[in-house]
Amino acid sequence: MNTFTWMDEEEEPSSSGKRVYSISELTREIKMTLEGFPPIWAEGEISNFTRHSSGHLYFSMKDSGAQIACVVWRGRAGSFRFVPEDGMKVIVMGRLSVYERQGRYQLIIERIQPAGQGDLQRAFEALKRKLAAEGLFDASRKKPIPRFPDTVGVVTSPTGAAVRDIVSVIRRRFPSVHMILRPVAVQGENAALDIARAIDEMNAFGKVDVMIVGRGGGSLEDLWAFNEEPVARAIHRSVIPVISAVGHEIDFSISDFTADLRAPTPSAAAELAVRDRSECLDMVNERTGRLLRNHGQRLRRHREKFESVVKRYGMRRPRALIQEYCLKLDDVWQSLRQAALQRYSVEQKAVEALEGRLKALNPLAVLERGYSIATRVRDGKVLTRSSSVEVQEAVHIRLARGGIRGVVQEIEDESR
To answer: What one-character-per-residue DSSP string does 4-34 give?
Structure first.
């Protein structure tokens, strides 16, 4: 690192031989000095918050005595669990830097978290508003929970009371249902990313019909992993229907709003995921009995109808009835035959008349009387005028029997 050279206030730079810094050099020296500081934690209130079109975040942090400019680069802003807002009190970790163009020192933020319980709630509401505006909570995108799942995926802590409650309820309600546990950390710095990764892995596995994501009760800080954006986005893109079961009945999380179904507790989630086997058997028995009763009633109605038909006059005299219908069939056949012969006679006469007309119009009949048809060989056009051909042009003459091909020797005037 360069060191500054000092001079007395009364000295002239030209006489002392001391270095004279340009503004850029001076600012760069200050920048190098400040950026030598290790990363620091700072607490203050956000003001003048701006999200630039580039994705970077710009704001100031202040207290009662001073303020400092802060910058969050786009790549880091996407990993924050909430969106900062004006007036929010936060604790940040960052490193000092200098914006040389303006000669202003600033704090480059790497991590940020609310400074208190009230700020956590504000962060919760801010993310809730953001995701709601994007449509992640819309009822139209909620997937139905399958009525009879074969396999239930569970994303929770492997040691908490939640997983024991879920297993106990499912074993009691429907013992044949398979369960697959993906153990995750449900609180702590990297818990949200672990939960989001587990949801994606369940979808990639592809053999799960419904998924329970959650944990037992705790404070707002304990449940915070389920209020982070990575978990909400993983639930949103899940193809498998997701039941969110976070905390107790009074607790609401971002994952509750994003999931396809919200359960007040992990035990309730297990009850919503699988039906009670004994209730299903009772329903099957009840519907089987109803089906048998309905079938018996229909069978009795058909038997009564059959007996009524057997007692009719036609069933008592089947041979006479068949003979009567045979006579009617003969009469109908005879009528159809007469009508067909008459129609044939009429059509035959019409055909003969048409044949006579065609013979009269047949040009070959005219040729039989000594006439002929002359055509030009080059295009087959019928000649009706002597001017249509030229001397030495080939012509063809069609006779009643055969034809003649020749060459024009002389053309007579059309008036002759």
So the answer is: -----TT--HHHH------HHHHHHHHHHHH
**237 in the same domain as 190:** yes
Long-range contacts of 357-365, Cβ-Cβ distance < 8 Å, separation of 24 or more: 364/400
The answer to the question of residue 121 being in a domain is no
Pair (71, 167) in one structural domain: no
Q: Does any domain span residue 255?
A: yes
* Phi then psi dihedrals of residue 379, to 5 deg: -135, 0
| 114 sits in which H/E element | strand 104-114
Residues 96 and 60 in one domain: yes
Compute mean pLDDT per 10 residues along the chain, 416 residues long, and list them: 53 62 77 78 89 89 87 82 78 86 84 72 85 94 94 94 93 92 91 95 95 89 90 96 91 93 94 86 79 84 80 66 81 88 87 79 69 84 82 83 84 72
Distance of CA 333 to the CA centre of its chain: 65
User: Cα–Cα distance between 316 and 309 in angstroms, integer?
Assistant: 10
Helix spans in 259-379 (H): 266-273, 277-310, 313-316, 318-361, 363-368
Nearest to 21 by CA among 41, 7, 37, 42: 7
Cα 179 from Cα 155, distance rounded (Å): 11
Domain identity same for 158 and 270: yes
Q: Where are the alpha helices (DSSP H) in 54-157?
A: 74-77, 117-133
Rounded to the nearest 5 percent, the helix, strand and coil shares of the chain are 45, 20, 35
| Residue 332 shares a structural domain with residue 215 | no
Residue 416 belongs to a domain: no
Residues 265 and 159 in one domain: yes
DSSP secondary-structure letter at 107? Answer: E
What SS3 class is residue 185? coil
Domain tally, the chain: 5
Rg of the chain over Cα atoms, rounded to whole angstroms, equals 50
Instruction: Say whether both 259 and 302 belong to one domain.
Output: no
The boundaries of the domain holding residue 291 are 282-311
- Whether residue 376 is found in the same domain as residue 343: no
pTM above 0.70, yes or no: no
Last residue of a domain, one of 275, 301, 324: 275
**277: alpha, beta or left? (left if phi > 0; alpha if psi -120 to 50):** alpha
